[in-house]
Design goal:
- The protein has helices spanning about 5-65, 85-95, 130-140, 160-165, 170-175, 205-215; strands at about 70-75, 110-115, 120-125, 145, 150-155, 180-185, 190-195, 195-200.
- The protein is an alpha+beta fold.
- The protein has 3 domains: about 1-65; about 65-155, 2-Layer Sandwich (Alpha-Beta Plaits); about 160-215, 2-Layer Sandwich (Rec A Protein, domain 2).
- Strands 2-3-1-5-4 form a 5-stranded antiparallel beta sheet, with helices on one face.
- Helix 5 (about 170-175) runs parallel beside helix 6 (about 205-215).
- InterPro entries: L1_C, Transposase_22.
């Protein structure tokens, strides 16, 4: 029968197609299983990342708590503090800031030079009240000068907090140009005084706020009457 060879070929083709379909079904099943595994792994990774971020925040908070009584002095010429920085600074600071301490000295537990650019001295004060007085006097004094060097006094924060604060640099410049009063509060929140108090956690939020003001009022130049800021 002439048709038999054709039927045999068709039968073989059908069998091959069925085999291919079976393999495709198996492959789809395996792919689906892999996708499910990837989805679970991604969820696990997201959870682990969230836990890691939370742990890092706690560690950073602990680090900043350990720096609670620290201040950072920038601008003092290298070697100016001599071989005993604590002995030098405990009388130098009150004289520079014109503030009184018991026995005309501020209690300093330790003073550590750091090879930053610009050079910095990290001081750990005996108590937080002295730190607050020093920072307040520094802001009230404006630009401090010693031996023809500009001196700046800041709070001492962790690298993570400093970077977050530095991210506000551009928007703080724009706020100054508009004469808007602002201040950084711990850890890295910008407090803006304009038609009430506004708090911003991200520089982008401040930029959006300024954009909304630009539609209402033109930019004005401000005078040098803003309080000095922490880093």
């Amino acid at each position: 029968n002439k048709i038999d060879p054709v039927l045999e070929k068709l039968s073989a083709a059908v069998a091959h197609i069925e085999e291919v379909e079976t393999r495709i079904t198996e492959a789809e099943t395996r792919i689906s299983a892999v996708e499910d595994t990837v989805t679970r792994d991604n969820a696990d990774l997201s959870e682990m990342k969230a836990k890691l971020d939370a742990a890092l925040e706690k560690i950073d908070d602990l680090e900043n708590r350990s720096r609670r009584c620290n201040i950072r002095i920038i601008g003092l010429a290298e070697g100016e503090e001599g071989t005993n920085p604590v002995s030098f600074l405990k009388t130098w600071l009150p004289n520079l800031l014109h503030i009184e301490f018991k026995n005309h000295q501020v209690k300093i537990e330790r003073a550590t030079p750091r090879s930053y650019t610009p050079r910095a001295l990290i001081l750990k004060l005996h108590n937080f009240q002295d730190k607050a007085r020093i920072l307040q006097a520094s802001r009230a004094a404006g630009q401090l000068v010693y031996e023809r060097h500009n001196i700046s006094i800041f709070e001492d924060f962790s690298v993570a907090v400093v970077r977050k604060r530095q991210a506000f640099g551009n928007v703080k410049k724009l706020l100054r140009e508009r004469g808007i009063t602002f201040a950084m509060i711990y850890p890295a929140i910008l407090r803006v005084q304009h038609d009430g108090v506004k708090l911003f956690k991200q520089p982008e939020e401040v930029a959006a706020f300024l954009d909304s003001l630009s539609k209402l009022t033109p930019t004005t130049s401000s005078g040098p009457n803003h309080p000095r800021e922490t880093e």
